[in-house]
Specification:
mainly alpha
Amino acid sequence: MASNNSTPATVTTSSNAKQFALLPKIINGGIAGIIGVSCVFPLDLVKTRLQNQQVGPNGEKMYNSMLDCFKKTYRAEGYFGMYRGSAVNILLITPEKAIKLAANDYFRHHLTTANGTLPITRQMAAGGLAGLCQIVITTPMELLKIQMQDAGRVAAQAKAAGKTLPKVSATSIAMELIRTKGITGLYKGTGATALRDVSFSIVYFPLFATLNGLGPRRDDGSNEAVFWCSFLSGCAAGSMAALAVNPFDVIKTRLQALKKAEGEMQFNGVADCIGKTLKHEGVTAFFKGGLCRMIVIAPLFGIAQMVYFLGVAEALLGTKSGNK
């Protein structure tokens, strides 16, 4: 969740950058992330399983579509099976969002020109740097989440082959990685995660700012976009950015899957994953789960923008919202 990239863009000029308050953004980002993840996590789980699924030598597949994956997962694991790995995501979503929000505003503030403008290239640079900062939290979160989400698929294939796999938890996976590989074990797939998150932020933040700037303004003199415009801009920018970087998400997901079903390929880095996937499955494999990812990201960003519009943190802290 997904990590999954579910952070709202904040359109910052040199004047309002000076009014930047970190604590409300941390709280709003955390609330937005928790609500968003809870709402769309089953879709993110389906996305992960579709991306990790490899086509057999005779073209056989465990899941034929997004709906088929939903049905088989629910039938085999029940309602709560759709939320495997959500605890890890919810636990780490607040610091991830705090880092990305604060970093984006920080870089936008320092990259704003002397005359108060922020050219598109600088917006892209600010977003990319913010995406780079967030991987400190994102990589371990995504790694553990993917193991939990994909465990059901691997267990189902093992059961079909007459084998039984022991149940795993995020804690046991994390402890085993630290015991065998040290803290760096939690950062498997960092390069691919950075490739996805930096690319996503480069596309999303400027696109949201552009779309949001096209809509009607509020009549309170704030020059801010009306609620529905920010909501739709977040949904549109998030879904388009998600589709654009889906190939990187497929690569990251496959590299971070520690357990493979019997007969599935192993990958030794980004280049190896790209080469083998292209050779055995073709270019369309890089867009597996693309629709799912767009459906996941759009409401995440819409919800996040709604939280900012409502000023939840400002209401809790008894301060005036800087986003209204």
